[in-house]
Amino acid sequence: MSLLTPDIYLQSVAEVSPELLQKYSIRSLLLDVDSTLKRYKSDSLEPEAVHWLETMKRAEIGLCILSNGKAHRIRPIAELIQVPFVAPALKPLPVGCKTALTTMNFDRKTTAMVGDQVFADLLAGKLAGLFTILVKPIHPEEEHWYTRIKRPLESFVLGQVKTGKLRS
Ligand SMILES: [Mg+2]
Question: Which range among 7-11, 63-67, 128-132, 153-157 shows the weakest confidence by mean pLDDT?
Fold first, then answer.
């Protein structure tokens, strides 16, 4: 079960502050895109996410996008916000996380995986030995059916995890 329990579970990336990251000695983030930084059906990031990314950059937090989306779809988003990317990342396999760590020269011990899906982002982060931050999905009703069908099981898994509460 610990493989499916995030270290931190929050409402959105906006709650991931430099102070919070410092508390856990996190210096770098691997970032999911769909339903984490943008609505699934949108081509552009949520304004709050763009603002948050700027805050992270100012705090000199290392950033790398890690998406299961195809590279041709993720590249324009990554270029717009000037953040490197690994895509497709093949989450929940840890291979994409490991590629990102190596490419970016991030230390596994000070890097967190941030995403909205238990059976993709969280599991990949755990299998790669990373700190994990789960956030609630932005507008989950817009997602593909194969993502939506996993949500009830996610809710079950997360049943005891209250938003904002810290798990160890
Ligand atoms: Mg996602």
Answer: 153-157
Q: Is residue 83 part of a domain?
A: yes
Tokens of 9: 């579970």
Specify the CATH number for the domain of residue 91. Answer: 3.40.50.1000
* Residue range 21-55, pLDDT digits in tens: 999 999 999 999 999 999 988 889 999 999 999 99
Range of the structural domain that residue 144 is part of: 2-157
- According to DSSP, the residues that pair with 28 across neighbouring strands are 62, 111
Cα 33 to ligand 1 centre (Å)? 6
Residue 133 in contact with residue 145, Cβ under 8 Å?
Answer: no
Residues with CB under 5 A from ligand 1 (ion): 32, 34-36, 116
Distance CA 63, CA 42 (A): 21
DSSP string for residues in 134-145: EEPPSSGGGS-H
User: Residue 54: which residues within 8 A CB-CB, separation 6 or more?
Assistant: none
Residue 162 belongs to a domain: no
Q: How far is the CA of 110 from the centre of ligand 1 (A)?
A: 22
The structural domain count of the chain equals 1
